[in-house]
Amino acid sequence: MSRIWHSLRQTLLAVLCDRYAIVVMVGAVILYSFFYPAAYRHQVAGNLPVLVVDEDHSATSRELLRKLDSLRVAHVVGQPADLQEARAQLEAGQAEGIVLIPANLERDILRGRPAKLVLLGNGAYLGRASWVLGSVADALGAFGREAAVTQAAFMGAPQAPPVTLVQRPLFNTQEGYGSAIVPGVAELIVHQTLLMGIGVLLGGRRLVLGRRLQFDLPTLTGMALGFGLIGLFGLFWYAGFTAWVQDYPRGGNPLGQLLGGTLFIAATVAFGLFVGSFFRTRERAFQYIIATSIPLFFLASLSWPAVMTPRPLVWLAQLLPTTSGINLMVRLNQMDASLAEVSRELITLAVLLVLYGALALWRLHSPKGTKGIKS
Fold this sequence. Notes:
It contains 13 helices and four strands. About 40% of the residues are buried. It has helices at about 1-15, 20-40, 60-70, 85-90, 105-110, 125-155, 175-210, 215-245, 255-275, 285-300, 310-315, 320-335, 345-365; strands at about 50-55, 75-80, 95-100, 120. The chain is elongated. It is mostly helical. A four-stranded mixed β-sheet has the order 2-1-3-4, sandwiched between helices.
């Protein structure tokens, strides 16, 4: 036990004394927590293109068109002849939404009949779709209330609408891009900086020794615990302090976060030790992180749906701690998920911990190995 504690202390000292490791594993985590979310502070998209298909061609439809064009979020960029043409433009990326004004809209309003409007949106970009659809829906709702006044001029006082739409976001309360993306990216930042730090230390040590690294079991255990403590600090720094300062959704299932976060970091450390054992220099760690960060985020299916990802990539993604770890922490922290609801992610991380732990032992363990990692 004393040897494990000694190795743990040596590992923490190595991180503190290595300027590259301390900047990557601690400094970068803290700096990113302030600078990265700042870009999404306002969480508002503006002047996004919208298409209007006017099949009514009445004074009422023209008034609705003027109201839509006056929105700050949306801007009417075209009036296609039919819905098929509008859909083609939407799929080509020329617009973010479509408003269909059906024929006989004005006649139905004047006759007291329920009039219908169709709103279609492009969900490829979460923030844009949210703001376009929400703002246009509000404008259409205001137009509906004005139409009720018009009906009253012909039919007397209008009756209360039979159905009232109440939109209340459950998790992403601000319906913003930042609230949807930053919490997931935070877990990726912790994962990548932890891997980079492990790779820097292992690669630098191997360069000094000029041979493959070998450690006895107590030393390797202490190293893993040291890296794990640093990873947990970064993870809960984002899940707690940063989410509070930046006012992102937070606070769901803290006990679940402690269990799930520990399992995520443990699997990441095991993965990092295995991958880092192949680095012959510390520069290899930086090259690895730069090349894999964006693919790892997309493979996590947080911003790109898994149903649109080729099945082999979906299967491959299950071998990465980030896939289960990001979804696990987002659901536990932002969505207050129970452990039963994230059981699949927990089991996957446990399997990955065993898998990469065994591989790390195969690569780094030796009964007569070195006693510690020194900077």
